Every structure is written in C-alpha cells, then in structure tokens.
Task: structure prediction
Amino acid sequence: MIDLYSDTKTLPTLAMRRAMHDAVLGDEQADEDPTTLALCERMAEILGMERGVLLPSGTMCNLVAILTHARPGDELICDHNAHVANTEAGGAAALGGVGTRTIVSPHGIFSAAQLANAIREPSRTAPRSSLVCVEQSTNFSGGAVWTLPEMQSVRDSARSRGLRCHVDGARLFNATTATGITASAYCAGWDSAWVDLSKGLGCPAGAVLCGDAPFIEAAWQWKYRLGGAMRQSGVLAAAGLYALDHHVNRLEDDHANAQTIWEHLKDCTAIEFDPGKPVTNILRFSFTDSIVRTADYVAACMAEGVRVRAIDERYVRAMTHIDVTKAAAVQAAQVLRSVAERLAAVRSSRH
Ligand SMILES: *Cc1c(COP(=O)(O)O)cnc(C)c1O
Result:
C-alpha cells in the first residue's frame, strides 16, 4: 500500500534507530538527559528563541502554550480549520477553561484586519481575547504557507491589542523548505513556537516547544502537571537530533513528489485542487460539482492500494513523506486519477 494518509505514518529509518540506540541518557525531569538538553537548545537556536522544552506530542505543545499564555475565561483566536480548534479534543476548554474564536479564511491564512475584527473590546461582559495562533504551514487548509509579511502584520495587530502570539509550527520546516525563509525569521517577535518531530521529520514521537526563559519555565510546570515530564527522553531526542541533521533538507523531495502527483491530476476534470497547486507536502482536493462522495473515493483508492484521507464530505487530503518514493508518487497519482474518473463517470451516468 502507498500511504498518503498523513506524514505521521513514517517509520524511523535504521540510521535513526541507531542514533536512538546510541543516545547518551539521563533523567529529563532533573535536566540530566544530555541528549534532550542538546535537542532543546538546538531547536531554540533554529527558531531564534531563548529556550525549548521537549514534549511527547504537538498537541501537548499547543495545550501547554495555551495553558501558559491564557487564563480561564480567556479566548484564543485561530483559523476555523486549525488543528488546535478541531482535532485536539477540546483541550484548551477542558483543561484551561479557554474558549476558541475562529476566523474563516480561504487557506488558513487570515488577515490582520480579520484578526482585528475577532479581537474583543475589553469589557465586563466579553471573554478576554488573549492569544492568537497561526499554523505555519497549514494542515487541513491544504498545506498553504503564510508569507512573512502576512505573519508579521497579524503578529503586530495582535500585539497592539495586548494578545500573545503563538506559532503552531507542526510543519514549520515545510514552510522554510518551500520559501527559503528561515524558521527564526518566521518566529521573530512571536511568544512561542514549536516543531513536530513526528511529521515530516520522521521521528516516532516528540515535539519541541520554544519561547523565552520565563515562558519555558512556566511551560515546564504544565508539562509536569499534564504528565508530560519524562525520564530517559534522550531516546526520542536522539531521533530528533538525527532528523535535524538528515531529514530537513530532504523535505524538498516530499514537496517535489506532491508536485508530481499534482502534475498527473491537474487536468483531470473530476478533481479541483484547493489551493490550486501544492506548495508543501499536502494536496487537498474536492470533486467537481461534489459528484463523488469523499468516503466512496477513499474506499475505492484503498481497494487499489493507495490510502488518502477524507477530511470531510468535501475535501480529500493526500500527503507525501519520507516513506513515499518518487516512483510510488507516480503510481499513486495514476490510481488517484483513474478512481476519480471512474467514480465521476458512474455518478454522472446515473444523473
Ligand atoms: C499534527 C498537528 C498537530 C498535533 O501534533 P501531534 O504530534 O499529532 O499531537 C498540531 N497542529 C498541526 C498543524 C498539526 O498538523
């Protein structure tokens, strides 16, 4: 099977497993795991931030950041398709008492004016707007990338109204790979940012949340409270360090493979890409006149050995990653196209 369901489906390479095997270890909670300390320091440096903390998942990075930045009764603002709003089990509300106000934007990239509209005037009756969260690059909105000015103007608009600013950088390196702009440029002036090790970087688990020293100190207390403090976490950190050395530059292969799939499908009249062309490793598409049910499409592709994901009744998502070769991308594209054409033909003949 060619698995384009998600870039989380990757398996650690043999060389990564060797790095994990050879890691020098200690007790993370006591700051005694040298490998974890090295990873956190390195990620903080890459993001241009003071310090970092390793957490088991990206979801916990968002949650810890929200709990650290906001108080119960506060509101965070993000796009309507944001991971934090839809697929983190309501953690902000459940554990932080923090509400979510969403902005509808085409590809998860909202304007400073839209943000300004969503920020509430301070009042006795309104929740306090306390945090803005952007995804760089976007996930369910189709892998779009914020330009630097777009991020800066949203950040400045948030700042001017007293909000804190958080970058969900699950796939930040896909953005840097697509544009050549550094991670530290994207994160400059933001209060917190994190990168997932278990997406395109191909590690089995882990994510590093970064910010200034007081933020990370406060984040550490939430990490501990949530049960996210670990012991010999250097086993995971070693995979992360290995990935920073060997798996960042190769993200361009994933992007090229996404382009290859798009090239094979772009003139298929049954399919509409949204965004019109992939810029990272994510392809999102719907069916012309919604003629094909996404669940039927996913099942039919699966029967032909290609796994993709129905995001909802409208969109299908396909993602390239380290375990998808160029040849597999070409093969998958043929299946994605022929299944779309077949199902669309069946449906239109019934109409
Ligand atoms: C995957 C993802 C997360 C959550 O990360 P996990 O490691 O799966 O918990 C958060 N935000 C975005 C944009 C993601 O793609």
Summary: DSSP finds 14 helices and 13 strands in the chain. The first helix runs from residue 14 to 21. The two ends are 33 Å apart (CA to CA). The pocket of pyridoxal-5'-phosphate is lined by residues 57-59, 62, 83, 135, 139, 168, 170, 196, 198-199, 207 (CB under 6 Å).
